[in-house]
Amino acid sequence: MLLAGGYKNENRDVEKATKWLIKSAEQGFADAQNKIGDFYSNFVKDTLKTFPKDDAKAFSWYSKAAELGNVKSQKRLGDYYSSPNGDSGVQKDDEIALFWYKKAGEDHYISCLNYLTV
């Protein structure tokens, strides 16, 4: 997201960065899908104007990225299923949460390993 953040004194071009991020996500780039999920979930706080909080859209983008093997999205899906909120439309399901935590843990995503040792 160098285009959005700029580099030192360079100008930010959030509109251009957003366009390319969405294009990448739509073409199946899992990291871009995960980032859009982060934006819609407001995990990245400075994106409220471009991506208003929408947990259902965040969940959808995380799901796409998780299916492609993105461990951060896999962990986030585990979070959604273990502690859902009303806006996402996800129902609590500890088995599915554990599935996603295991999937991310198999790829050595450290923050998921804690969930697997309990």
Residues in helices, as a percent range? 55-70%
CATH class categorisation: Mainly Alpha
Q: State the fourth-level CATH superfamily.
A: Tetratricopeptide repeat domain
Please describe the biggest sheet, giving its number of strands, its sense, and whether it closes into a barrel.
Answer: none
Straight-line N-to-C gap: 36 Å
Supply Rg. 15 Å
**Helical stretch count?**
7
Structural domains: how many? 1
Structural class: mainly alpha
The CATH architecture would be Alpha Horseshoe
Principal-axis shape equals: globular
**Tally of DSSP β-strands:** 0
Assembly classification: single chain
- What is the CATH topology? Serine Threonine Protein Phosphatase 5, Tetratricopeptide repeat
Strand content: under 5%
As residue ranges, the low-confidence spans are none
Provide structural commentary:
The chain has a single domain (2-116), classed as Serine Threonine Protein Phosphatase 5, Tetratricopeptide repeat (Alpha Horseshoe), CATH 1.25.40. It contains seven helices and no strands. The protein has helices at 2-5, 14-26, 30-40, 55-67, 71-82, 94-106, 110-116. Helix 2 (14-26) packs across helix 3. The chain is globular, with a radius of gyration of 15 Å. The model has no long low-confidence stretch (mean pLDDT 83).
SSE arrangement:
Blueprint: H1 2-5, H2 14-26, H3 30-40, H4 55-67, H5 71-82, H6 94-106, H7 110-116
